[in-house]
Amino acid sequence: MEFTARHHRFGFPRLPVVMGIVNVTPDSFSDGGRWVDPGLAVEHGERLAAEGAAILDIGGESTRPGAVPVPEEEELRRVIPVVRALAGKVAVPLSIDTRKPGVARAALDAGASIVNDVESSREDPEMWQLVAASGAGYVAMHMQGSPETMQRDPRYTDVVSEVSAFLSGRLLRLAEAGVPPESVVLDPGIGFGKSPEQNLQLVRATGRLLGLGRPLMLGLSRKSFLGKLLGVEMPDRLPAALAATLWAARNGASFFRVHDVAATVQALRMDAMLGNCANSGGEAVA
């Protein structure tokens, strides 16, 4: 299996891919405002790449629960200088975390190679046609509702079956729009319209979701469901996030979107050395 994004290629099995988060926002739940200055955001991205991030995910609109949409002009103002600068400074592929085709187009023109779309529930095919025409990679994520409403009593009859059916349907819609399967990564949307228990069910179902035939991405980093399940505040959630990451990696997850790159890379490498062969190709990683 492989994932392609323009001239970048990730072949599997291999050590799971760590995607480092660069939030150019004043209001993200974990680090809002820290990197809103473009220069600081670029320095942060360079640091994450040096720590082992194999992809950098740049976002200018918070999608935390209750967040309100950002005008396209403001999102462009935040992210495009950062994408353009990082494209000239790091060798790893850049991902644009956006719901807006206009922002995605500008970011791809500025040097991004992947569109990370939390709103792949969309019906308008414009975003998918853009991805197909550009040869970009695409992360299709499940979200119930919108960031403004998603945590208002999310309900499912069977969360795993419903998320799996949604992602399967997205693969069909993407193919109809001209996006080849090898350009797609699937994300069950941990924390996006799910209760803590539903998030746990989805993590436990990692192996089942792999039956869709595409690499799986999980965003577990500092998520509130960890705190609610364990009674810990956001700054103290790293151990829980690492435990969930290693469990999912052993069960076949291939991509992890994280804030704490160095710790996650170190944990995954050590896990591979200890014999986790689910994604390392059966080889220890030195």
CATH-defined superfamily: Dihydropteroate synthase-like
In total, how many beta strands? 10
Structural class: alpha/beta
Q: Kindly state the mean pLDDT as a whole number?
A: 91
pLDDT < 50 runs, ≥5 residues: 282-286
Assigned CATH architecture: Alpha-Beta Barrel
Instruction: Give the oligomer, counting copies of the same chain as homo and different chains as hetero.
Output: single chain
Total discrete domains: 1
CATH class: Alpha Beta
- Strand fraction equals 15-25%
Widest sheet: strand ordering: 8-7-6-5-4-3-10-9
Question: What's the gist of this structure?
Answer:
With 286 residues, the protein is α/β, with parallel strands linked by helices. The chain has helices at 38-51, 72-87, 101-110, 126-134, 159-176, 196-204, 206-209, 224-230, 238-250, 261-273; strands at 2-5, 8-11, 17-23, 55-59, 94-97, 114-117, 137-141, 184-187, 217-218, 255-258.
Detail the topology: elements first, then pairings.
Elements: E1 2-5, E2 8-11, E3 17-23, H1 38-51, E4 55-59, H2 72-87, E5 94-97, H3 101-110, E6 114-117, H4 126-134, E7 137-141, H5 159-176, E8 184-187, H6 196-204, H7 206-209, E9 217-218, H8 224-230, H9 238-250, E10 255-258, H10 261-273
Parallel strand pairs: 3-4, 3-10, 4-5, 5-6, 6-7, 7-8, 9-10
Antiparallel strand pairs: 1-2
Helix pairs in contact: 1-2, 2-3, 3-4, 9-10
